[in-house]
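hey can u check if this looks right to u? its 1122 residues, i copy pasted from the old doc so theres a chance i mangled smth
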Amino acid sequence: MTVLGDQSVPKSDDAARPADAFEIQIITDPGRAEELVLFLTHAPDGRIKPHVPHYTQAFRNAGLRVAVVVVADDLGEVRIKDIAPFCDGLILRQNGGYDFAGWAHALSRIDTAETKLLILANDSMFGPLNDDDFNRLIARVRDSSAELIGMIDSAEQRYHYQSQLLAVRGAGVVQMVDFLAGVRALPTKKQVIDAYELRLHNAFAAAGLSTQALFPIPAGFTGNRTIAQWRALINEGFPFVKTVVIQALPRRDWEAEVTAHGYPLRLIDGSLDLLGGAGGGDRVSDEKKSDIAAVAAAARADAPTRAGSAWRSPGWRHDGPLSNTFKRGFYRLMARLTGTIAPAQSERYKARAERRKRGDGQLGGRGRPSRVGAERIEGALAFDAAKPNVLVVSHEASRSGAPILAHNIARALSVRYNVTVLALTGGDILESYAEVSEQVYHGKRIETRQLSYEALLRRFTRDRSFRFAIVNSIQSRGVLEDLSRADIAAVFLLHEFASYIGDPKAFEAAVTLAPEVVFSTRLTLEAAFDVALPDRTPFMHVLPQGRCLVPAAPKAADETSAASVYARDDEADQLSALMRPAGTKSFVVMGAGTVEYRKGTDLFIETAARLVSCSGMDHVRFVWFGGGYDPDTDLRYSAFLRDQISRSGLEARISLVPATGAIDVAYGLADALLLSSRLDPLPNVAIDAMCTGTPVFSFAEASGISDILIERGLGVQCVADYLDTSQMADKLRALAMNVATSDELSARVKTIGEEAFNFGRYADALIELGERAARRKAHSARDEATIAEAPSFRPDFCSPEQAHSMSRPKLARRYLRTSQKAGWARRPEPGFNPFLYAEARGADYDGASAPYADFLRAGRPEGPWLQTVIDASEEVPRASDLRAALHIHAFFPDQLRGCLDRIRRNASRPTLYVSVADDESAGLVRKVLRDYDGPVAAVGVVPNAGRDIGPLLTHFGPVLIQGHDVVGHIHFKKSAHVENRALVDTWSEFLFEHLLGGDRGGAMIDRALRAFENQHRLGLLSAADPHVIGWTRNLRHAKTLGHRLGLDDLPCYFDFPVGTMFWMRAQALVPFVDLKLEWGDYPPEPLANDGTMLHALERLFGVVPASNGWETAVTRVEGVTR
């Protein structure tokens, strides 16, 4: 077997094929949808099973868009007319690989960029049996906060969700797309189940995503509910019955149940003609007949006459010794009975019997936790009923960075709260946790992911409520889902670089679950954007951790003796001899950390070589403390370091020694600490060195320490450019040559360290975030009511597909669920930016409510968060007197005629400047422009560089800003990176309708120009986009351009013309033209879909005018959104 992530698939010689190796035809593209159902059905001989249209139409009636994938051996035989009226998209696919391969192949052809809810379904169930239960089920899916929602879970083989009906939401959509991207078409159903169905749940749990089963298995039940408890499921409100159950049972066993719910029997009968009914028939293979026989045996157990059967008795549900003995015997019997008719089922029975032999009655996986109980350790601090309770979660209790930070947090919070510490796995500072808290729970987990913490949390929340939780480190992310379900607000502390962990997407999943997220440095936050997070929100913060006190290690019996004191003195003497040999006046540079590439030990050596080669540097010594240097066995790194030292002639000037227990002595002996790391958030060695007054030198963009030094005025002295060892050597040389400045620098560094890493202030900031998260959670119902009752709340704008099928309270709840999620947030009304409101209101917004609810209750205060809205319903003005120009980048000239039709809706006729890619396109454009009844200034052939921005700024820019008052800019989109043509067309239609006009918008150019006439400080007018979008992956490019534009302090949150189409006052455009960008300055094609100079400029078109004092506004056309 070849293992791909968590998916085990056969090698190619086992007949596995790529999921996209089959013929596929897109009959009807489903288009863009926030809520999408992907329904797969097999059409024998091209015939659609009669129960399928009823099923798909039920989804549509519930307000979901449905794409049906019909798999068949011969696509030419598929009876399209029988299914096309009952779906919104239709895809035909050659049969192969079962449901997972079919979903994977079809989904690769569907654009899900806007999809917030994706449901995967297949035709293996009859139903919905009735509308009421089905609508309630869909409502539960919509109301769920989980990213993966299974209808039915199962503990057969391993804990998993059955795949006949699955839903994913939010970040779960991306995770599902990624999961399916690794799917191959496997030849047998069992292989598909083993490789994909059984592993899907764990893949989501491993990514830190939340999961929920709507109809969970009862305690102790280890069978398949859809078969053994099908009737009970219907009574619980699950409005389906498996087709195989109907096939397996006599009609008398199911007909009354089905007809009682009003389900048409003709649908079952018609489908059974294609599937084969009870007893089989010519259509049923021998393998299928065996499966049906096995199902029949299990399904009859749910008949009323068998209600008292053994597996439904109380004794069956508990795994005591007697029960395990009975179960083992029963499963061995069932294994023998099913050995010939259903070998796969027989193997499962054998596995269950073997587990009972070992006494392993409980299965692992989320929702089925191990029976090994958590250990409670009594804390040294007494419970105080007058104090609120808080929870501090650490992934382990080892004597290392993150657990030590959790210890210090617990100690600081214990002054104001009863602190419970939860250590998910073990370690040697559990007792130290107990010394600073009221109680400690040791979770006794083997590892921190994929397991449910619900039962564990319930154990210590039974008798008390928790105000909030501090969850420390990405390794603790598995607890976030269950904290959310327990209604405990969490502050999530992230110290790691997303690129340095095995699953970067865990960042996005975890951040989605946490109400407040704290990154220890700017670098870790920005690194998360590069590989994981889609964008920033006001609920993400950068807060350097305070200096930690290391818990004392347990002392052996003789450690308090005089001998131990002498031993430390002896180590101090050894350090002194090493770092400052007798009779020398050395300038000592120390480094510390594990000897590895990330820590930059080679850069430490390279800097040493550069420094000692300078004149007057004979007294310089370098000493590195840390384990891992073993050049005789570590041939990947250490051996090269030894060679580097030898070839640089540094043997007498540099020492690499093991870590010392007297590191504080080393700080006192060193003149400087060189932090040579390539990437290191906030290393404790640098924090400790600064707080003891040892000057620290570091590389810019490599550590959060560099940011602190730069912010506090020591950048010139102590921070070199990224990995520039020559510059670093110069900075160390300046200090080594001027010892008189050493004391002054030491004092400044010590002051900065004590201020920047004050743990009391750090703890207070965490408390403030925890309290506001708790208040926001407590106020959620009030926020929902405030928003639902506000006339300004526009569901048709922020949730157009649900606006007419859901009540305003539900729409408000839907808005609130996504309003704080990076990459998913939308605006509740045109012109309002909730993230900008949260930031710009400052102290007037305390974070205790959702930003929009706070805005409404504050009386809709004016500010940069609320743009003027030019509505298409306003009276159409006369033609404008302003000198207006419109630049059209017609890279796709076939769309120009439609553009001119929109312009003719207006009385105004802007002067046209049209850019094209070649002479042939220029000829076509000139021909079309003959019909334009306004001025045409130029048709210019431009290089294929800079997309639409290059022609605007580099080719036409100087002319546009000199001879015109207002400049419009549009371009024709085809977005080759987006496969869904409907998505691009809808976006273009949205922008053109809002900026030019059309059937819905009317004369939007006239309205835009009138706004510029009436508002003399109006600098930018763009379309009212419903999405809340920030810098995403473009901040680095924006900083470079911003500096050239005279804007070094870029805002976190802002508005900009999404799609780079707008009207701008010529004066506001001047700074961009003055950049004097040349064609070679633009990135070459093909262009990435984000993270380029052009995407940064798109955002700066909104940021720069606002920063220069210009006002901005948006246009709004009723019924046109995206």
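The chain is about 40% helix and 15% strand.
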